[in-house]
Amino acid sequence: MMHHMTEDQILLAVIKYLKELKQVEFQQILDELHPYDIAQLYKNLPHKHRYRFLSFLLPKQIADLIQELDLDMQADVLQKLGIEKSSTVMDLMENDDLADLLNELSVEKIKEFLSVMKKEESQIVQNLMKYPAETAGGIMTNRYIWIRSYYTVREAVDKFKTFAKYAETINYLYVLDEDKHLAGVVSYRDLLLADMNDKIEDIMFTRIISVEIDMDQEEVARTFERYDFIAVPVVDKNHKLMGIITVDDAIDVVIQEANEDIEKLSASGKDIDFYTKSYVAAFRRLPWLVLLLFIGLISGSILSFFEGTLKQVVALTFFMPMIAGMTGNTGTQSLAVVVRGLVSIDINRKLIFRLIMRELGVGLMIGGINGFLIAIIAYIWQDSIIFGLVVGVSLFFALIIGNLAGTVIPLILYRFNIDPAIASGPLITTLNDIFSYSVYLGTASAFIMYLM
After folding, report:
1. CA 251 to CA 246: how far, in whole Å?
2. DSSP codes joined into one string, 5-73
3. Handedness of CA 348, 351, 357, 362 (dihedral sign)
4. Residue 211's Cα: distance from chain center in Å?
5. pLDDT digits (tens, 9 = 90+) for 145-195
6. DSSP line for 132-150
7. CA end-to-end span of the chain, whole Å?
8. What pTM value is reported for the model?
């Protein structure tokens, strides 16, 4: 019945069962829904039905639902559940998600929730909350299955079956020595293919790819990309196993970092979305725009410096917006290429040199073709070869400089450990205005006697 129903029909059926207190029918619908779909259903429910919706759910369903909501709604659900039911749900949540949620609450609330949880779960979550949010420690979970190297495959499978429901992923078993050091890893597939009497030490992999607990989350995501893992172990400085990171968390990191980079590229500041209040959004964007306002004043002073040239050859003003605009555009294109490259490639001197030479080549080609075209147009319009040459040569050099600025500025910021995405479009555009006006009006001034 379910697969023939649209989202709207499911929503209406759920509301009907909530109103009529039909818990069995309600559960039949929810049993066939993925946690993401249950979360969407909850978001679309009128507020008056949400409390009863939660009361009809099983604790495990609530735990899965919470993990699909944003932090504000998560806190709201816990509020609706009350302390007793919340504690049951929290015990069932993935510990890394729970640590993120609690970190958003007030100190009193955190203490209140932790005090009613199971002692061991509470301790684990507190340990996870110690790690900075954007590090391997901040996104890891400790729900993994570990075994010893002297186990037989049969013993490993037995332990696997016992703990499978507690583990976040059942793709790997981690082999620890007496001091909890990570000694090897065995995949679920290896277990299936091995003989039941084989020893784990004979089938385990000892060359283990792991990440350190303080590694930045972007670097962690890159490890997943390189090795196509479903989970990666997290170790401390002494190679003790502290937890694992699963691929779903790595994907969340990639999306989060990409969104941050896009926000910075447009200089709109982070944490501005469809729901941000106007005054908050304005104050987050203002610092950038005030800085660019002052840099923009330099463009104005360049124009006043060359005022004499512009008065004598008024036709020059016609091409100014085009030259400034084209220079800004080519710089922004280069910037986008560089920022995207920095996210996925390890940078070294040789690569930087190659990139700058490549962009110089690109600038020469773009500048040459566009400069030639605009020179012909300017010559035909003013019937002056010199005027055409001034406009064409200016655009040629302006585009080369603009292209290199879009490449070099993000690399310089990257070198000084400033996020290169902050070298945002507006900054490049404003600087390129200054470069293009200087080149254009400087060239025109040099040839002023021939232009008049």
Report:
1. 9
2. --HHHHHHHHHHHHHTT-HHHHHHHHHTS-HHHHHHHHHHS-HHHHHHHHHHS-HHHHHHHHTTS-HHH
3. negative
4. 19
5. 999 999 999 999 999 888 888 787 788 999 999 999 999 999 989 998 999
6. -TTBHHHH-B----EE-TT
7. 84
8. 0.58
Nearest to 244, CA basis, from 270, 271, 272, 223? 223
Give the span between the Cα atoms of 180 and 197, in whole angstroms: 24
Kindly state the tokens that stand for 216. Answer: 């930045």
Side-chain-side CA neighbours of 43 within 13 Å: the count stands at: 15
The position carrying tokens 């000084």 is: 416
Residue 320 CB neighbours (<10 A): 17
What does R_g of the chain's alpha carbons equal in angstroms? 30
Give me 120's structure tokens. Answer: 């061991």
Short-list 435, 434, 341, 345, CA closest to 397 = 435
Architecture, CATH, for domain 278-451: Orthogonal Bundle (1.10)
Q: Report DSSP state, residue 398.
A: H
Per-domain residue ranges of the chain: 2-132, 146-260, 278-451
- The 10s digit of each residue's pLDDT in 222-277 is 999 888 889 999 999 999 999 999 998 888 888 888 777 776 666 655 556 677 78
Q: Which residues lie across from 245 on neighbouring strands?
A: 232
d(CA 426, CA 80): 45
**b/e 251-261 (16+ beta carbons within 10 angstroms → b):** eebbeebeebb
User: In 3D, which of 171, 168, 201 has the Cα closest to residue 184?
Assistant: 201
Domain topology for 2-132? MgtE N-terminal fold (1.25.60)
**For 267, left (φ over 0), alpha (ψ -120 to 50), or beta?**
left
Contact 406, 428 (CB under 8 A): yes
User: Going by DSSP bridges, is the β-strand pair 231-235/241-246 parallel, antiparallel, or unpaired?
Assistant: antiparallel
Architecture of domain 146-260: Roll (3.10)
Q: List the structure tokens of 187.
A: 């995949």
Q: For residues 144 and 98, give the distance between their C-alpha atoms in angstroms, rounded to a whole number.
A: 16
d(CA 398, CA 434): 10
Q: What is the pLDDT of residue 366?
A: 95
Size (the chain), residues: 452
